[in-house]
Structure formats: structure tokens, C-alpha cells
Amino acid sequence: MHVFGYGSLMWSQGFRYEEKVCGYIKGFQRRFWQGSERFRGQPGKPGRVVSVFKSDEPNSFVHGVAFKIPKADEELVKQRLVERERGYDAIETVFYPIDDSGCVKEDRIVLEIFVSNESGSLYLGAASERDIAWQIYHSKGINGSNLDYFLRLTHSYRQCFPSHSDLHLEQIEQEVCKIAAEKGDSLEQLIGQIQ
Prior knowledge:
By secondary structure, the chain is of the alpha+beta class. It has 5 helices and 9 strands, in the order E-E-E-E-E-H-E-E-H-E-E-H-H-H. Strand 8 and strand 9 form a beta hairpin.
């Protein structure tokens, strides 16, 4: 069994794995459209976390990490992920591994991904990059600030995929930087704390 990490699973798995492979899935898009009232927000004041959604563009892709789960741990990992990923649906798709130079390898992996349930109570939907950044900057939950989540995601993404970009993440990051500048906060110092 393989599990796809495209958000916090990229840096905080909470399970053992035998192998970690960077790559992508096709036909999906990663968006900060999912609310979090527990881990990165509070009831009535949700933070925003990423989810993947089916895309109208069949060649769109989401970069992430495939984790191979030891056979003996599969049921436990499934249970933990179902609890952790509340408001998401699990589906199977094909994962395309890439090598260190960013080239696609020949082998493919069928794995489970968690996609947002758009009819769920924590589905927030689209908003402007500025509004998303503002919500991220000011939300906090039991796992810490939503800003910490965002900075860890962008850091993990750049570590795994230095030659690839995610326009949605980049546009929100630009707005986060503007908010930090407006507030006189040192975003560089915050980024330094997670590295």
C-alpha cells in the first residue's frame, strides 16, 4: 500500500514507511480550499489547509510524495489517516515517480489519495489569494499556527521539487509576504525556525 502526501504528510507522517518517492498525480489540482477547525484553526474560525480536487484539465498535476507502508501497518495507517483526514474522501489514482533530475521514471504506483469532499462542512471553496493568505496568517489550532503549516508546506515542496513550481502556492506566498511586511513581521525569521 502507498499513501500520497501533498500537504502536511510531506513533513509530518505519523506512521512508519519503507520508502519515500517524489513524483506527481495527473488530473488534479492542489488548493487551499479546505477548512481546519481543529489542527490549524478553531470552531467558527477555521484555518485553511490544502486538498486536491479533480481538475478540468486532464494534464494538470500535483507534486507530492508516495510513502510505501509496511504490510503489517497498513490497517493501522488507514485508520489513522481516516481520523486525520476528516472531511476528505479516499480514492485510488496513479502516481508518477520522478528521479533526482525531475525526469519521470518508467514505473507507476497505484495509491490512495485523500480528496476534499466539496459537500462537507469544512469545505471553504475558492477565494482570492489575498483572502486565503489573510486567513492563513491569522489562524491557529491545536497543531500550531496556520502560517506554520503554510511555511512548512512551501519549504517541503521546494526541497522535493526544486525545479518545479506550484502557481497557487506561489501566489499565496506573495500575499503572505505582503501581509508580513504590512504588519512589520519578519517572515525570514519565521522561515528560519522551520528549517
